[in-house]
Amino acid sequence: MSAFGRILLCYDATREGRRALRHGASLAELMNAETHLLAVLTSPTWSQGADIASAVPFDTLEQSAREILCDGIEKLAARGVVATSHFAIGDPLDHIPLFARELKADLVVVGHRRSGPVRRWWSGRNDRLLLDRVSCAVLIAMDLDDADAHEPVETVITHA
Fold it and tell me: Is residue 1 a part of any domain in this protein?
């Protein structure tokens, strides 16, 4: 089995999430890795996106999140990558490490936007970092700020 025999992709249908999905799919295909796709529904994340979100029933939000997960599975399948889907409700910074541990993932793939009000998956309240909570490698798929460069950047961070 390769160094990254089991990969956990974190997907939320944002531009960063789609980028992480593409890079993760490429790695999964190259490594012939067992692939898992995780979508996490967080009420604060959804409500920050629209003022009317609080008026939307939770069941509707959950259905939308599950559709995003299905979309990710379909995108992977189109690339020839078969993945097991996982869905959770809560804080991604709690669920990503939990799934990584339970699945014995060798690599977690997340998207990250360098600037902006929401730093999805990567960091959260009280400066809790995803890297502090997982014991496997993490691939961070991101773009540099437009002023800095126009090429995407991928960073793999491994724990010693």
Answer: no
Q: Are strands 6-10 and 107-111 parallel, antiparallel or unpaired?
A: parallel
CA distances from 138 to 66, 98, 100, 135 (A): 24, 14, 10, 9
Q: For 44-70, write each residue's pLDDT tens digit.
A: 544 454 444 455 566 777 888 888 889
How would you classify residue 80: left for phi > 0, otherwise alpha for psi between -120 and 50, otherwise beta? left
Structure tokens at 108: 């977690």
Q: What is the CATH number of the domain that holds 134?
A: 3.40.50.620
Q: For the chain, what is the domain count?
A: 1
Query: Which residue numbers in the chain have pLDDT < 70?
Result: 1-2, 43-58, 113-128, 143-160
- The pTM score is 0.75
Domain that holds residue 64: 6-11+20-157
Of the candidates 117, 130, 155, 151, which has an alpha carbon nearest to the alpha carbon of residue 10?
A: 130
| Residue among 100, 83, 81, 89 nearest 65 (CA) | 89
Dist CA 152 CA 106 (whole Å): 23
Query: Is 150 among the domain residues?
Result: yes
Q: What is the pLDDT of residue 45?
A: 46
Nearest to 96 by CA among 143, 34, 37: 37
